[in-house]
Amino acid sequence: MKGKMKGKMLNNFSLKILSIICAIILWAVIVNIYDPTTSITIPGVAVTLTNTQSLTDKDYTFEVVDGSKISVYISGPRSIVSDIKASDIVATADLSKVTVYSDYVDIEVKISKDGVSTSSLEVTPKTTAIKLSIENRVSKTFNIQVETVGTPDGGYVVSESKISPTTVKLTGSASTINGVNSVKATYDVSGASMDIDDTAPLKLYDEAGNVIYDTKIELGKTAVDFKATLLPTKTIPIKFKSQGDVAVGYKLTGIDYSSAEIVVMGTEENLKKIDSVEISANAIDVTNLNANKDFVINIKTYLPSYVSLVSDSKVTATAKVSVIKEKEFNIKFDSINLLNVPEGYSVSYGNVKDINIIVLGTESIVNAVASADFKPTIDTGNLAVGVNSAILNVTLPTGAILKQTYNVELTLIKNKDTTGPTATDNTISATTAIH
């Protein structure tokens, strides 16, 4: 009886095991039907760096070159996986694991969502490590340059500006700090009409003059104290003088100036004392010049101490020198206008009918001279009866001169009667003289 019972129990145990296996299989089939396994890839998961002080404490700086945002592969029951978002994923890289032999740090990911068991999920980062750029952390002190921009109001200018402190310490990676060429404190004075006491922000510039925007650079100060003094201005003329004669055979045709006035600043009382600035003649000495020459004049040396220069301190005076050309012209005596011939008298040139004159000037001026423009005249008002030597006067264009004084020999003759002149050829009486 006992043997029969034992055999029956063994037979039932096998059935029980088989039932359990069948139940498991049935459960798996049901789960797979109603909550199947699925997978998704979630992009844009930010990687958080931990233990960053392990590098900074050793005077290193770092920058993530690659791997700051990654994609994460997740596989598991659809009921769980479909509810997971990028914000539910925690991705970290422990910088304490960085060694001197590697600049890569492994990325660890996990799900951080209430009620979700990561044991039932497969969570794998597509990018397994971040890449770092690690450099020595350095500090460098820069002198601060001060500059103002804009235009003050009402003709005022900034006469003096200063900052405090005058230096600033920058800290960052060696390559970043080496890229800084200058530090400036810039203040906009637009519309100002009184002294300024304020703060000015600091800006970093590279060698090309571009502003550097890098939040990883630490500044000992981001702004400095700024003070500026404003003064009124006045525009005054420059009075030039020159001295000397150019070389023989040359002519000084003119002097050009890069500026004929300057702007000075000072107190209102001192500005009333000055109306012009005079340049001494020895500043522009044209003695023996045979070519154009520039004279650079430092205006500051001619200003009184109670005013200061606002405009450019250098003015250039260009002395223009040209070669003198000469050209000969013929003047007929019958074209000469006799002036002030006494009543009852005549003028005779004898047998001479003309005279040659030489005109001097630059090539362009001489070439422009024409005989018809001379309008020759002789003043006979002070001549005595008989033979005289009278000066010939001609009209010349600006820049042209006669090589010498030209005299014409003529005879002043008293008429014997009023019926007409009795003189010889080339005689002009008072009644027929051209006035």
From TrEMBL:
Tagged with keyword Metal-binding: no
Organism domain of life: Bacteria
Pfam families: YbbR
Keywords of this entry: Membrane, Transmembrane, Transmembrane helix
Transmembrane segments: 12-34
Organism encoding this protein: [Clostridium] fimetarium
Chain coiled-coil ranges: none
Cross-referenced InterPro entries: c-di-AMP_regulator (IPR053154), YbbR (IPR012505)
Keyword Zinc: no
Protein name according to UniProt: YbbR domain-containing protein
